[in-house]
Amino acid sequence: MRLADLELEPGAAYEAAELREAFDRRMTGRGIEICYDDDDRRQRYLRLFSTDSGPYEDDVTGGQFTYVGEGQRGDQTLTGGNRYLKNAADAPLPIFFFHREAGESAWEYQGQVDVLACDEAEHGGRTVYQFTLQRRSETRERIDRTEAAADLDAPERVETSRSRVVRSTPVVRALKERYGHACQLCGATRRRGWTSTPPSASRRVGAASFGARRSSGR
Question: According to the UniProt record, where is the region Disordered (predicted)?
Answer without folding.
Answer: 191-218
